[in-house]
Design a protein that fits this description.
The complex is a heterodimer. By secondary structure, chain A is an alpha/beta fold. Chain A contains 18 helices and 23 strands. The relative contact order of chain B is 0.11. The chains are: A alpha/beta, B alpha+beta. Chains A and B meet through helix 3, helix 4, helix 10 and helix 13 of A and helix 1, strand 6, helix 2 and helix 3 of B. Bound molecules: flavin-adenine dinucleotide, iron/sulfur cluster (2 copies) and FE2/S2 (inorganic) cluster.
């Protein structure tokens, strides 16, 4: 029988009423970063509230497959934090903040062990320790993993800790605005929409940690989930925070290409980690040309560009892809080591990867840029505003190493929680100005009042197509300008969007807000890409094909000035000489010579 | 709604519409959606939202079978919308919300009770201190591993007749799987038997195995989680169902 127990208040689309609640630390996002932040902030005694757009335990992090990078040296005793540090900086093409990378590499092992102590069940070495697998551009076997479901186990383990502590959370709740005290300029609250009812909620708080993940959904072909619409970037920017290196978008080399419905879905790098081989339509192992030493396990930017080049130069498959072959591993080992991939192809594409080759092409995967933060505390330039995880910037530079994100979100999720719980101790609750609040309520309810507005779904598609076409793997001035112009037109159209129906669980309303955020993200990405006149890491320009250390060892800052978006160029913070020595290791130099 | 003259193949979906607060408005609406290669039910739902009716409510996130958000009943069978190809079915496809949970709107149900159940299961409690490196082996990991594949789609809860009828008394298959994943963790120190018998209502399960048929993660819920959990309870208390099951299957 259908249950009839549920009661649900219906909100008139025009209803401007709101409820109020309060906490010390508001954490926006319940991926790995947000949940780890919540645990820390709660354990340190701060009144903590965790909110997320999807259901608790469903965050984008669940999709992570390959593993979590930490120099535990369980398999390769030569490994240590210094080498992890140098791999991160070197492969990040020297744009990473050295202090962030140092904290990261030093603390990643502790965070992995903590996850084990929380109950995560990692694969084991022969002698009973946490197993580590090789991954693209890591010098040693460094990725701890749980089959090919590392992200799911990470989320479930942290979720259990959140539930065990009874940390207050509100899932299916979207934050739309950050309020600041008019006198002090410090964070004082946020506006939220409860998605299940459409109700509005003012959350008064002293500190906010943004852990909202990335913005992959601004591209047509992406491995990212629905919630990755770059909300955090837009929230922070509108609040006056600085963004950094927004041009750096990672294309993962291996996305599914066929059938159309699954285009972009990720094929984990672990397939290559376990021995998968890339070939073109002529059967050539083309990575021998581009990176003879590391071959298929070269850095992601290198492999993505190589695949792109093969396809562009006519050596792709009829579907516009290249092949990835793992058959030589044998059916039994494939099913044991890569069970999710086996089922993913079988169930979504009707392909048995133990018998057939996979077809793969690059897919938008990760945002290296994001909100600019202070290394030790994850604080932004706005008092009381912190950021951690994919939404924050500073660790990955021009190219993120596989596995580095899962350790990033734990290391800096914890640090943000810690710093926020300290910050609130000496901070009074700020004011939320009445006009700021009513202005925001008007802004978000506008799509319900519109009678002739644009369809937000169409605009979302236009954004995604524009970015894919003009701001892809290989860029140039003309395309970027066209992209900017098109995004400008979409921005104009987005001023009048129309949402239909009731407010509860209304996809057109959710997408209206996503469009506003995505337009802002895109503008920042394109303007930053226009600013960086060289090729470095994930940012490749056909009109400036060379890396130019003399002029572009810089971070590109995006911020507001007199209501306009501007870019500023600042030198990458200089690392102390003893750290310089770490990244000039012989073998790294030797590799770099071989990489085209 | 139907575009005539369009020669493309079409898919017809019959979709449940309704509001939790007013069940007198329950109804079904029919939509024709152009077919694309590899199309899954969730694609068709998105097409409806963007082209015909943006007020149609559905829950989803990863669109990759990883997050367990998009659970629904498709032609009466609990499935993930993002993992169900429309080509699987011949004629009209009926999409309804999960019926074991209170309806919120259209295809979306209220699954919050599940988090409350999760809170009540005695949490992982290590048997060794955390000041040293734990040593255990791959073979110790395997038993619990299967249960950790669970994406909390709650489809097994949806199909279980005990959950549907005695919601308050039985935690349901998902949570037996969870308890099993903790019980079979090599470093866990707790014995959850008395919880499973007295609070979890494990005795209500009569091993119909419906739950394991719907699990998108192919977890063998009944044979590998429920029966061993029942046996743990039997170690201390006698459960006739397990006794009968053993008799019939000859499994110990
Ligand atoms: C398919 C795939 C495989 C991957 N594999 C790996 C891997 O093997 N190793 C690795 O290190 N990395 C991997 N990554 C990258 C890694 O998973 C992500 O970078 C990481 O999980 C991001 O975590 P996060 O906590 O920062 O954010 P997310 O997990 O993205 O969480 C964001 C949270 O913010 C919430 N949110 C967003 N906007 C709002 C809003 N406006 N209001 C309220 N809440 C909001 C969301 O609901 C969600 O809870 C992979 C990524 C993908 C897509
Ligand atoms: S086997 Fe038990 S838990 Fe599974 S559906 Fe049947 S009664 Fe429910
Ligand atoms: S056990 Fe299977 S069916 Fe049940 S919630 Fe988990 S994944 Fe879904
Ligand atoms: S949308 Fe995540 S499982 Fe279907």
């Amino acid at each position: 029988m259908w249950s009839t127990t549920s009661s649900q208040k219906q909100f008139d689309p025009a209803d401007e009423s709101y409820e109020t609640t309060s906490c010390d630390v508001l954490i926006v996002g319940a991926g790995g970063a947000g949940m780890r932040a919540a645990i820390e902030s709660f354990d340190k005694g701060a009144k903590t509230l965790l909110v997320c757009k999807s259901l608790l335990g469903k965050a984008h992090t669940v999709m992570a497959e390959g593993g979590i990078a930490a120099a535990l040296a369980n398999i390769d005793p030569q490994d240590n934090w210094k080498i992890h540090f140098s791999d991160t900086i070197v492969e990040g093409q020297q744009l990473s903040n050295w202090r962030i990378a140092e904290i990261f590499a030093k603390e990643a092992p502790e965070r992995v062990m903590e996850l084990e102590y929380y109950g995560a069940l990692f694969d084991r070495t022969e002698d009973g320790k946490i197993m580590q697998r090789p991954f693209g551009a890591h010098s040693y076997r460094r990725l701890c993993y749980i089959g090919d479901r590392t992200g799911l186990e990470l989320i479930r383990t942290l979720e259990d800790q959140v539930l065990k502590r009874n940390i207050p959370y509100m899932d299916e709740t979207e934050i739309t605005w950050i309020f600041k005290d008019p006198a002090t300029g410090a964070v004082s609250g946020a506006l939220a929409i409860k998605i299940t009812t459409g109700e509005l909620l003012l959350i008064k708080c002293k500190a906010i940690i943004l852990a909202t993940g990335g913005c992959g959904k601004v591209y047509a072909v992406t491995s990212n989930s629905w919630e990755s619409t770059g909300d955090g970037i837009a929230l922070a920017y509108r609040a006056g925070a600085e963004l950094m290196d927004m041009e750096m978008i990672q294309f993962h080399p291996t996305g599914m290409i066929y059938p159309a419905g699954v285009r972009g879905m990720l094929i984990t790098e672990a397939v290559r980690g376990e021995g998968g081989i890339l070939t073109n339509a002529k059967g050539e192992r083309f990575m021998e040309k581009y990176d003879p030493k590391r071959l298929d396990l070269s850095a992601r930017d290198v492999v993505s560009r190589s695949i792109y080049t093969e396809i562009q130069e006519g050596r792709g498959t009829p579907n516009g892809a290249v092949y990835l072959d793992i058959r030589h591993l044998g059916a039994e080992r494939i099913k044991e080591k890569l069970p999710s991939m086996y089922y993913q192809f079988l169930e979504f594409a009707g392909i048995d990867i133990t018998k057939q080759k996979m077809e793969v092409a690059p897919t938008v995967h990760y945002q290296m840029g994001g909100i600019r933060v202070v290394p030790d505390t994850c604080e932004t330039n706005i008092h009381g505003l912190f950021a951690a995880g994919e939404v924050a910037c500073g660790l990955h530079g021009g190219n993120r190493l596989g596995g580095n994100s899962l350790s990033d979100i734990l290391v800096f999720g914890r640090r943000a929680g810690l710093a926020a719980s300290e910050y609130i101790k000496n901070t009074p609750q700020g004011e939320v100005a009445g006009q700021d609040l009513s202005g925001e309520i008007k802004r978000i309810l506008a799509p319900f009042k519109s009678l002739n507005g644009a369809n937000p779904f169409d605009l979302k598609d236009r954004i995604a197509a524009t970015m894919w076409k003009y701001v892809g793997i290989v860029r140039n001035e003309i395309d970027l300008r066209k992209g900017l112009e098109e995004i400008g037109l979409i921005k104009l159209d987005s001023k009048n969007l129309q949402a239909k129906g009731a407010r509860a669980f209304n996809q057109s309303w959710a997408d209206s807000m996503a469009v506003w955020n995505m337009v802002l993200d895109c503008e920042a990405i394109i303007r930053s890409a226009l600013t960086r006149k060289e090729s470095r890491g994930a940012h490749t320009r056909s009109d400036y094909p060379k890396k130019d250390d003399a002029n572009w060892m810089v971070n590109i800052i995006t911020k507001q000035k007199d209501g306009q978006m501007i870019q500023e160029v600042v030198p990458v913070p200089k690392m102390p000489p003893e750290y310089e020595a770490l990244i000039n290791r012989e073998e790294i130099l030797a590799w770099k010579k071989n990489v085209k | 709604m139907e575009k005539s003259g369009n020669q493309r193949k079409q898919v017809t979906l019959r979709i449940f519409r309704g509001l939790g607060s007013d069940r007198s408005k329950d109804r079904y609406e029919v939509f024709n959606v152009p077919y694309e290669d590899g199309m899954v039910v969730l694609n068709a739902v998105h097409y409806i939202q963007s082209h015909f009716d943006s007020s149609l409510s559905a829950r989803w996130n990863c669109k990759a079978g990883r997050c367990g958000s998009c659970s629904a009943e498709i032609n009466g069978f609990p499935r993930l919308m993002c993992k169900t190809p429309v080509a699987m079915f011949g004629g009209e496809i009926t999409v309804e919300p999960m019926r074991a949970f209170p309806l919120l709107r259209d295809l979306v149900t209220d699954v919050q009770d599940n988090y409350e159940i999760a809170k009540n299961i005695p949490a992982f409690t290590p048997k060794e201190s955390t000041d040293h490196t734990w040593i255990f082996f791959q073979r110790d990991v395997e038993k619990s591993r299967e249960f950790r594949k669970c994406i909390e789609c709650f489809l097994c809860q949806d199909i279980c007749h005990v959950v549907r009828e005695h919601k308050a008394d039985y935690i349901g298959p998902r949570f037996v799987v969870k308890a099993a994943s903790l019980d079979m963790h090599p470093m866990d120190s707790l014995n959850r038997s008395s919880f499973m018998k007295n609070s979890a209502g494990l005795g209500y399960c009569n091993i119909t195995k419906c739950c394991q048929e719907v699990c998108p993660e192919h977890i063998i819920i009944t044979d590998n989680a429920i029966i061993p959990e029942k046996e743990r309870v039997v170690d201390r208390n006698y459960d006739p169902l397990v006794w009968i099951y053993r008799k019939i299957t000859g499994k110990s």
